[in-house]
Write a structure and sequence with these properties.
alpha/beta, 9 strands
Length: 202
């Protein structure tokens, strides 16, 4: 995977999903999440997994049940992202051989998620925790813990989040909203990747 950026395609439909994903991948965003509250999300995940599973990590977001984890695995998904840190969901994700990125906010949630087997942590909503909050939590996290900032992190503040120790980002509406064309998403993805690359420490 080229960059630690996860595209969150909330509201995407199976009809458009392949063309939109193609633009993301061409731009260099090779982790793609279809939230489960999108129309026919499993169908979109299955289409993406079949088309791009060898060059991109395809998965589901807003996963809150063990049953959904199993459904995503059957559809070919390899990534489970949740808004919360449910130990049962994390354990089921790892048992199915998928990557687990649960949503956390407090140190207790962070450590509970890691002890359950999470591959990384999704700070959500990142805007609520803020730069200083992430710095404070990072001081006690195990070395090497992957932390993704989601919700309030985008091309306008990548540098600040990276300085606060964020390893990666989940990007939603700044990349895709229902109604955006594949061309618009591709253009936004290219700009997002450029901003991310420019934000890297010199």
């Amino acid at each position: 995977m080229s960059r630690p950026l996860i595209a969150i395609l909330r509201g995407v439909t199976p009809i458009e999903v392949k063309d939109i994903a193609a633009g993301l991948i061409d731009a260099g965003i090779t982790r793609i999440e279809v939230p489960m509250n999108s129309p026919s999300a499993l169908k979109s995940i299955e289409k993406l997994a079949k088309a791009y599973g060898d060059i991109a990590q395809i998965g589901a977001g807003t996963v809150i049940t063990v049953e959904t984890v199993l459904d995503v695995a059957k559809a070919g998904g390899k990534l489970i992202v949740s808004p919360n840190a449910d130990k049962k969901v994390i354990a089921a994700t790892k048992l199915a051989g998928l990557d687990s990125y649960p949503g956390v906010m407090t140190p207790t949630e962070c450590f509970d998620a890691l002890s359950a087997g999470a591959d990384g942590l999704k700070i959500f909503p990142a805007s609520l925790l803020g730069f200083d909050g992430l710095k404070a939590i990072r001081a006690v996290l195990p070395i090497g813990t992957q932390v993704y900032a989601v919700g309030g992190a985008d091309h306008t503040n990548f540098a600040e989040w990276i300085a606060a120790s964020a390893d990666g980002f989940g990007i939603g509406s700044a990349l895709y909203k229902p109604g955006f064309t594949a061309a618009e998403v591709a253009q936004r993805a290219a700009a997002m990747v450029k901003a991310f690359d420019l934000a890297q420490p010199k």
